[in-house]
C-alpha cells in the first residue's frame, strides 16, 4: 500500500474565472505542499498574476471552484508593483506582524538600512524592501510575481539564498530563466485556461512543453481531418435523412465548436524585426584611459576598450555602480574627467532606456508611435498604418488612444521597442530591456539581436540573456574598478571569480547550480547515532522500491489507451480520467524516486 501524499498547504480545485466575456480559467487545479518551490509559467495575458491573486485571496474572487488553505497557514503575496508605506523601512517591514529582529535581519540581507525613509525609493529598493518584509514574516506560502524585476544580479542571488533557506512553499511567476533554473522543483504551466503540472524544475520545461504541444498539434490535425469528412457529408444533403442523422449533425456542430475554441486560444504572435541602416565604420567606439567621478565617488578610473562593428557588449554590476553613466560616456553624451572617446563613422544609434523616460504620462500609444502626427509610421523605409504596426507588437486598436500610463510594464517595454525598431540603425543600446517581458517576447528579442548586423551595447541583470548574446562583458563593481572579459556572465565569473568581492550585496558565490541552504547551527549535545532506519522510514523505502518497479507498466498501460484516435471524441470524460491518472502516476513516481534517494543515502550514511 502506497504512503499517503503530503497534504497541500494551499490548493485550488476546479477554479473558474472570467474577465468580462473573456474566460481566464476553466477548471484550474493547483496544489502546493510544504516547502515545495514551484514556478507558474504562461504567455502574456494568460492570467498568471490573476491566478496568484486568487491563491492569495487578494482582490480576485473565482466565479466557481474552491480555494483551500491549511488552518493557521500564513500566505504572503509580493506583487509586481509593491506599495511601500510607513515612515521607515523598519515600519514597513514590521507592519505585517514580523518581529523587529527578523525585519532587521532580512533588510540587512537585501542591503537596506532599517532606518531608511520609504520616500524616494528606486524600483530596485522597493522590490528589495517588499521581499525583505515577506521573508521577515516567515510565511508558510510565498507567492512572488516577477520578483527579479529591477533587481541587480546580487540581489537576485540573495533572493535565491533566502528561498533555499526558507521553510515556506513558494510559487513564482518570473521571466528570468537562470533564476527559475536555480530555485524551482516543480513547474505549473497555465495554457488554454487550465494548469498543467510537471514535477520537475523549470530547466525541464521546454522539452516537456514541446512534447505537449506536438501532441496537441496531432490532436488538432485529427480534428481537422474529421471535420473535413463530416463537412463533406453535410454538403451532400441531409434533408431527407434529417431524423435518423440528427445525432451526427449535432456531433458535427460540436466538432465545429471545438475547433472554434481551439482557434480562439491560439496565441497572438509578435512580428518584431530590425534592419541595419548600413555598415558603420569597423571601429564603433574606442575609449582610452577613461575616468569619471562625482565628488568623491569614483564611477570609472583609467578604463580603455575598443568596440568593433558586430560586437555584442554586455555591462553588468550592482545597481548604482554606474553602468548607465559608462554607456553615456562611451556614446559621448557626457564628458569624461580624463581620457578620450572616439566614435566611429556612419553611426545611427537607437537607445532604449530602462527608466522609459520617453514615455510621457499624458501621451497616447498612437501619439508615441507617430511623433510627427498623422496615421502612418515609417518602418525601416516603408510607410505603415500605425494600427497595423502596433498590432505586430500585440497592441489592440482600443489601446491606441489610451495613455501610456494605462499600460502594463511589459506593454510599455514593447512600445519602446516598437518605436526604436522602426528606424534603421547600426548601433543599438538597450538598458534593461528584459524587465516585464514574457519569455516568448524575450525569445523573439534574442533571435532578433542575434541576427542584427550592427553593434549592440546591452545593460542587463538577466544572466541567461547575457550568456546567450554577449561576445564580451564589461563588469563594474561600484568602486571604480572596471573589467572586460570575452563571453557572457558565466565566462566572466569563471575568469574573474573575485572581481565583485566587496560590492554591495555580493556574497562572493556565483556558482551556476542551485544555491545551498545555510548550515544548521550545531546542537548543544550530539545525540546517540542511529545505525539503521526507523520502522517508518524502512516501510517508506520498501514502498518506494515497489512503486518504482511497478510504475513503468502502469504508465504504459494508461498511455496505450490514448492510442485510440477517436477516444476523445467518443468519450471526453474517459479521456480526461486517463490523463489525470497518468499525471498522478507520474507525480507518485517522481515523489517515490525523490524519497528513495533521500532514504537510501540516509541508510548508507547510518551503515557507515
What's the quick description here?
It is built from 19 helices and 20 strands. The chain has helices at residues 48-56, 89-94, 100-109, 123-136, 153-165, 177-183, 205-235, 242-265, 323-330, 365-369, 386-392, 397-400, 409-422, 439-451, 463-469, 489-495, 535-561, 567-570, 572-607; strands spanning 10-19, 22-32, 37-41, 64-69, 75-78, 141-145, 169-173, 186-191, 194-198, 283-294, 297-308, 312-316, 338-343, 349-352, 376-379, 382-385, 427-431, 455-459, 472-476, 482-486.
What brief labels describe this structure?
608 residues, 19 helices, 6-stranded mixed beta sheet, Rossmann fold, 20 strands, alpha/beta
SS summary, helix count: 19
What is Rg? 28 Å
CATH superfamily of the largest domain: P-loop containing nucleotide triphosphate hydrolases
Strand arrangement, largest sheet?
A: 5-6-7-3-8-9
Please indicate the count of domains: 4
Number of strands: 20
Distance between the termini: 30 Å
**Assembly type of the shown chains?**
single chain
What form results from the Cα inertia axes?
A: globular
Which class best fits the helix and strand makeup?
alpha/beta
Which segments are poorly predicted (pLDDT under 50) over 5 or more consecutive residues?
238-244, 510-514, 516-529
Estimated share of beta-strand residues: 15-25%
Percent of residues in helices: 40-55%
Annotated CATH topology of the largest domain: Rossmann fold
Mean pLDDT: 82
CATH top level of the largest domain is: Alpha Beta
Largest sheet: 6 strands, mixed
| CATH architecture tag of the largest domain | 3-Layer(aba) Sandwich
Amino acid at each position: 500500500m502506497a504512503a499517503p501524499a503530503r497534504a497541500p498547504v494551499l490548493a485550488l480545485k476546479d477554479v473558474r474565472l472570467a474577465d468580462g466575456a473573456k474566460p481566464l480559467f476553466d477548471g484550474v487545479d493547483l496544489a502546493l505542499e510544504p516547502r515545495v518551490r514551484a514556478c507558474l509559467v504562461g504567455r502574456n495575458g494568460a492570467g498568471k498574476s490573476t491566478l496568484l491573486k486568487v491563491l492569495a485571496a487578494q482582490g480576485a474572487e473565482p466565479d466557481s471552484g474552491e480555494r483551500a488553505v491549511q488552518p493557521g497557514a500564513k500566505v504572503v503575496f509580493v506583487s509586481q508593483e509593491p506599495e511601500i508605506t510607513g515612515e521607515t523601512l523598519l515600519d514597513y517591514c514590521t507592519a505585517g506582524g514580523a518581529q523587529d529582529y527578523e525585519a532587521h535581519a532580512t533588510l540587512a540581507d537585501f542591503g537596506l538600512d532599517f532606518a531608511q525613509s520609504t520616500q524616494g525609493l528606486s524600483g530596485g529598493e522597493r522590490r528589495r524592501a517588499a521581499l525583505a518584509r515577506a521573508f521577515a514574516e516567515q510565511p508558510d506560502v510565498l507567492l512572488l510575481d516577477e520578483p527579479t524585476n529591477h533587481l541587480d544580479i546580487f540581489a537576485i542571488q540573495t533572493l535565491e539564498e533566502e528561498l533555499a533557506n526558507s521553510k515556506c512553499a513558494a510559487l513564482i511567476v518570473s521571466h528570468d530563466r537562470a533564476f527559475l533554473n536555480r530555485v524551482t522543483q516543480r513547474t505549473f504551466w497555465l495554457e488554454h485556461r487550465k494548469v498543467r503540472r510537471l514535477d520537475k524544475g523549470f530547466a525541464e520545461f521546454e522539452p516537456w512543453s514541446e512534447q505537449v504541444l506536438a501532441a496537441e498539434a496531432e490532436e488538432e490535425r485529427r480534428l481537422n481531418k474529421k471535420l473535413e469528412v463530416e463537412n463533406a457529408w453535410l454538403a451532400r444533403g441531409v434533408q431527407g435523412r434529417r431524423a435518423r442523422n440528427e445525432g451526427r449533425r449535432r456531433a458535427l456542430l460540436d466538432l465545429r465548436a471545438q475547433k472554434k475554441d481551439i482557434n480562439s486560444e491560439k496565441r497572438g504572435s509578435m512580428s518584431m524585426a530590425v534592419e541595419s541602416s548600413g555598415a558603420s565604420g569597423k571601429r564603433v567606439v574606442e575609449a582610452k584611459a577613461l575616468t569619471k567621478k562625482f565628488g568623491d565617488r569614483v564611477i570609472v578610473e583609467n578604463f580603455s576598450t575598443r568596440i568593433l562593428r558586430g560586437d555584442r557588449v554586455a555591462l553588468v554590476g550592482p545597481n548604482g555602480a554606474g553602468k548607465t553613466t559608462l554607456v553615456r560616456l562611451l556614446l559621448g553624451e557626457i564628458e569624461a574627467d580624463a581620457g578620450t572617446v572616439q566614435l566611429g563613422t556612419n553611426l545611427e544609434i537607437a537607445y532604449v532606456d530602462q527608466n522609459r523616460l520617453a514615455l510621457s504620462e499624458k501621451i497616447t500609444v498612437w501619439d508615441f508611435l507617430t511623433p510627427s502626427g498623422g496615421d502612418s509610421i515609417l518602418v525601416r523605409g516603408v510607410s505603415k498604418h500605425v494600427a497595423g504596426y502596433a498590432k505586430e507588437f500585440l497592441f489592440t486598436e482600443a489601446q491606441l488612444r489610451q495613455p501610456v500610463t494605462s499600460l502594463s510594464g511589459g506593454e510599455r517595454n514593447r512600445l519602446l521597442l516598437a518605436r526604436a525598431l522602426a528606424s534603421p540603425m547600426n548601433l543599438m543600446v538597450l538598458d534593461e530591456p528584459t524587465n516585464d517581458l514574457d519569455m516568448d517576447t524575450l525569445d523573439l528579442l534574442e533571435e532578433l539581436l542575434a541576427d542584427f548586423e550592427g553593434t549592440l551595447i546591452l545593460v542587463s541583470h538577466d544572466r541567461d540573456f547575457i550568456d546567450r548574446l554577449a561576445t564580451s562583458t564589461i563588469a563594474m563593481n561600484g568602486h571604480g574598478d572596471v573589467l572586460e572579459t570575452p563571453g557572457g556572465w558565466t565566462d566572466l565569473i569563471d575568469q574573474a571569480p573575485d572581481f565583485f568581492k566587496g560590492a554591495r550585496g555580493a556574497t562572493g558565490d556565483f556558482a551556476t547550480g542551485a544555491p545551498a541552504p545555510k548550515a544548521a547551527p550545531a546542537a548543544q549535545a550530539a545525540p546517540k547515532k542511529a545505525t539503521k532506519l526507523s520502522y517508518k522510514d524502512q516501510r517508506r523505502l520498501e514502498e518506494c522500491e515497489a512503486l518504482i518497479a511497478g510504475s513503468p507498466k502502469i504508465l504504459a498501460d494508461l498511455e496505450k489507451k490514448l492510442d485510440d484516435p477517436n477516444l476523445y471524441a467518443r468519450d471526453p470524460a474517459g479521456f480526461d480520467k486517463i490523463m489525470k491518472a497518468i499525471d498522478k502516476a507520474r507525480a507518485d513516481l517522481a515523489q517515490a524516486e525523490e524519497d528513495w534517494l533521500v532514504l537510501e543515502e540516509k541508510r548508507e550514511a547510518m551503515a557507515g
